[in-house]
TrEMBL record:
This is PAS domain S-box protein. It comes from Fodinibius salipaludis. PANTHER family: SENSOR HISTIDINE KINASE, SENSOR HISTIDINE KINASE PDTAS. Pfam families: GAF, HATPase_c, HisKA_2, PAS_3, PAS_4, PAS_9. PROSITE patterns: HIS_KIN, PAC, PAS. It comes from the Bacteria. Residues 485-537, 610-660 form the PAC domain.
Length: 876
């Protein structure tokens, strides 16, 4: 390669590098002014320049004492500077033969002295020079030379910065205008640092509102949200992708594919909405499965070839008969599977199909197990995606060749295959109001003469007179700029026969935004319309049956939306149809029944059926007792609840009579509780006398403990005696009496001052739970009073009782000396703690013991709803 070629290649690379900086047409004087000023002052020259050299021109990007913005490279001193890699100095331009005749030397600015340093990029390309100029002959000191070299490096650094800023700005513009989701995320806080407009739209916030937004807040699936956040928080992860369901600003769930890349301590996220893609794929998969089922269930053979006769698709019958695998059949010619003697006739028939669009032929198929089998083939041509295809349907005519009737029957069955192309296409040019359509449109519109040229007038001739207004309305909307909407209308065929068709289409636009044409498809939907009409009749019949029921009928979906109801239901509720359609199932019940009804509804969807009695709340506020039975019904994609409701007012009246009988028995039980209370009081008094007379402290303590336990049970029986029913004992008053008794029994002269803070919700218990609960509180309060405050220490005991739903929790807390670190109630030998453990089990409760500035005992249990006068303490 010659030296000239090498030089040309170097210059080409240099110009390419210069173009990357985009300096020639950019005003960057402000960024460089301080550098040329500095060079002028250091070198003590009146003129200083920063120049870049293009293919034929020198561009001055910053200057001191120089007004010329560009000159030709032939006149440029810097042109010679960039040929070298070091400083170039011309002390007297008149004596330098390169510049003696230069117009810049002979004329203004009368250059005599010049010193320039190449502006060298990191890759070694000299894209320009920084220079100082004087009108008098002179030289530079070594320090001035080094300073000028250093300034040249700073100029290149500024160029690099300008290029990077331009790249960043370009990237930011691309980021903001991208239709994809793009964001930068902080790996520590997972907060958004930067997002594009598409992401802001998805997050439903402005840039000013972005501060504090944490990634993942709108991901629907909580587990997946945690998984993605965990992935982003793990230092070892650098790349990953997830498919998430995201709640958009329209509160719609969209499916996003998010990809993450970790770079320079930042997560870079890109994403795309794939909801529509997945929906389209599902629809395509469903359509493919549907067509595959049709093809595979066709009687006889089916195969599809391209216009060269190469097989593209085939059904299972074809595969089984030829006895070959899919890979062996693929890309083979259809004629290769028939006898050689039939090849010529089949090729002629194939060409006829290509020429006319359809054709028929006979041939002997080569089968694996049965040899040659004669088949009658019916073929037709269609176009899809600008490619021509031939569909062939074959029927075994081995047994049908003997009679003409059987042959005719076979040929009729073969033509069924032509229905596979039951879709016509059309193109409407708005500018000249012309129409083009596919051959299938002639069939759908029952136009016998296929030679008739498609036109708007011919199209409207077949439209039912009552539906002409539909066509005119759609036409006017399209012309006014509205988007295309699918529409249906009737065709009036011969002998007043009506055919229904559906049109789908898309409007195509010119570059200037004007409408170019409309493309569409038309399909015969007569069978679907008739099926719909049949379904509507069947629904009307079922509605009549449902509305004739002498009980309420209702149907809700899994989201609580009312789907169907009968007249009895509407009359019983007093609400109209519009109100019912917006009401939730629980809206028909008073608050006291809503939880039970909600649980019953859950059982229906979980177990399949459920029954419940509840009072029904009518629109007038009347409560009517009803017996409801419901079961689960599974639709295509939604689960439904269907059920009936029966007014049981008369049954409830009979039940009230039974309740009255029970009340009489409860009176007897009240008297029994009164006698038990009196007997327990006598026993408590005897124990108190024994305790007073006992000299042994241990014995006295046992007697007092027994007295407190007896007194607690007596208090409960006293409450039972005074209660109107035995299932709703007010427990707050019981606790007050227990604490009062403890203080009375154990508070003797010289004892410490122990106060009680009691806070009990309105808690009502039946006797089955009241007795063990009361004894537990008695034991824990007594234990705290006796042991938590040694040496006459003052203290406080708090008793709190809370009820949330059916869950009840009691907390007994003191600020005494607390419990040992290794304390375990199961390892205590005292009767009190043994009794507490036993009662906790009997109550079906949980016990939690804590140590926090004293002792804390927390026990919780579920409230029972045992009704009737026979409620009693059950043994364990």
């Amino acid at each position: 390669m010659s030296q000239s070629n090498i030089s040309d290649m170097g210059e080409k690379e240099r110009l390419g590098k210069l173009a990357e900086y985009n300096l020639t047409d950019r005003d960057i004087e402000e960024e460089l002014n301080n550098l040329v000023t500095l060079a002028s002052k250091i070198c003590e020259t009146p003129i200083s320049l920063i120049n870049v050299l293009g293919a034929n021109t020198q561009f001055t990007k910053a200057s001191v004492g120089w007004d010329i913005t560009k000159i030709s490279r032939e006149e440029s001193f810097c042109h010679h500077t960039i040929q070298d890699h070091d400083i170039m100095i011309v002390e007297n331009a008149i004596e330098d033969e390169r510049f003696t005749e230069s117009p810049l030397v002979e004329g203004e600015p009368h250059i005599r002295f010049y010193a320039g340093v190449p502006l060298k990029t990191n890759e070694g390309h000299n894209i320009g020079a920084i220079c100082v100029i004087d009108r008098e002959e002179r030289s530079l000191t070594s320090q001035q030379k080094e300073s000028l070299k250093m300034i040249s490096k700073e100029v290149v650094s500024r160029f690099e910065l300008i290029k990077k800023n331009a790249q960043l700005k370009k990237a930011d513009i691309l980021l903001q205008n991208s239709s994809d989701i793009q964001a930068i995320i902080d790996p520590d806080s997972l907060k958004y640092l930067e997002v594009n407009n598409e992401t802001l739209s998805l997050l439903s916030c402005s840039k000013s509102e972005l501060d504090g937004k944490r990634f993942g807040e709108r991901i629907v699936d909580e587990d997946l949200r945690d998984e993605v956040r965990t992935f982003l928080s793990e230092p070892k992860n650098v790349e990953g992708s997830f498919v998430v369901r995201f709640l958009s600003k329209e509160e719609e769930v969209v499916k996003l594919k998010l990809s993450f890349t970790f770079y320079q301590n930042r997560w870079y996220m890109t994403g795309r909405d794939i909801s529509r893609r997945d929906k389209v794929l599902q629809e395509l998969e469903s359509e493919k499965l549907f067509s595959d089922n049709i093809i595979n269930n066709l009687p006889g053979l089916f195969c599809l070839t391209d216009e060269d006769g190469i097989l593209q698709r085939w059904n299972k019958n074809f595969k089984q008969l030829v006895g070959k695998s899919n890979s062996e059949i693929e890309d083979s010619a259809l004629f290769d599977h028939f006898a050689e003697d039939d090849s010529e006739l089949l090729e002629i028939a194939f060409k006829q199909v290509l020429a006319t669009g359809e054709g028929e032929a006979e041939g002997n198929l080569k089968t694996k197990e049965q040899g040659l089998i004669p088949y009658a083939l019916t073929s037709f041509q269609f176009t899809m995606d600008d490619r021509n295809y031939i569909a062939c349907i074959g029927v075994d005519i081995s047994d049908l060749r003997e009679t003409q009737d059987k042959l005719r029957h076979t040929l009729t069955n073969m033509r069924i295959g032509q229905e596979l192309a039951d879709l016509g296409s059309w193109r409407w040019d708005l500018k000249n109001n012309s129409l083009l359509w596919s051959p299938k449109v002639y069939d759908i519109y029952d136009i016998d003469n296929v030679a008739q040229k498609p036109s708007v007038e011919l199209f409207k001739e077949r439209v039912h007179p009552e539906d002409i207004s539909i066509i005119d309305d759609i036409t006017n909307r399209i012309k006014s700029g509205e988007p295309f909407q699918d529409f249906e209308h009737r065709l009036l065929i011969s002998d007043d026969k009506v055919r229904w068709v559906r049109h789908s289409g898309k409007i195509m636009y010119e570059d200037d935004g004007s409408i170019s044409h409309v493309i569409g498809a038309v399909q015969d939907i007569t069978s679907q319309v008739k099926a719909k009409q049949k379904l509507e009749k069947e629904k009307a019949l079922s509605d009549k049956i449902i509305n004739s029921l002498p009980i309420s009928f209702f149907m809700f979906d899994q989201h609580g939306n009312a789907i169907r109801w009968n007249d009895y239901f509407r009359k019983a509720t007093g609400f109209n149809d519009m109100q019912i359609s917006y009401m939730d199932p629980l809206d028909y019940f008073p608050e006291k029944h809503k939880e039970r009804v909600s649980q019953a509804i859950e059982r229906v969807f979980e177990e399949g059926k459920a029954s419940i009695q509840a009072e029904f709340l009518t629109s007038s506020g009347e409560l009517v007792p009803y017996l409801y039975s419901a079961s689960r019904f599974q639709g295509d994609q939604i689960t439904y609840l269907i059920g009936t409701g029966q007014d049981i007012s008369e049954i409830k009246e009979y039940q009230n009579e039974l309740d009255q009988s029970l009340k009489e028995k409860e009176v007897l039980l009240t008297e029994i509780h009164h006698r038990v209370k009196n007997n327990l009081a006598i026993i408590s008094g005897l124990l108190q006398l024994e305790a007073f007379s006992a000299e042994n402290d241990h014995t006295k303590n046992i007697l007092k403990n027994s007295q407190m336990r007896i007194q607690s049970m007596a208090t409960i029986h006293e409450m039972l005696y005074e209660a109107e029913n035995f299932n709703d004992l007010s427990f707050d008053s019981f606790v007050e009496q227990v604490t009062s008794s403890v203080r009375e029994v154990y508070n003797t002269a010289g004892n410490n001052d122990i106060s009680f803070d009691i806070s009990i919700d309105a808690i009502n218990l039946n006797i089955n739970q009241a007795v063990p609960c009361g004894l537990i509180i008695n034991e824990l309060v007594t234990n705290a009073y006796k042991h938590a405050f040694p040496n006459h220490q003052d203290g406080r005991i708090e008793i709190n009782g809370n009820k949330v739903g059916s869950s009840i929790t009691f907390v007994i807390e003191d600020n005494g000396r607390g419990l040992p670190d290794d304390f375990s109630i199961d390892e205590q030998n005292s009767l009190g703690f043994s009794l507490v453990s036993s009662l906790i089990d009997q109550l079906g409760a949980t016990l939690d013991i804590r140590r926090d500035d004293g002792a804390i005992f927390i026990f919780s249990f579920e409230q029972e709803n045992v009704r009737g006068a026979g409620s009693s303490i059950s043994g364990t």
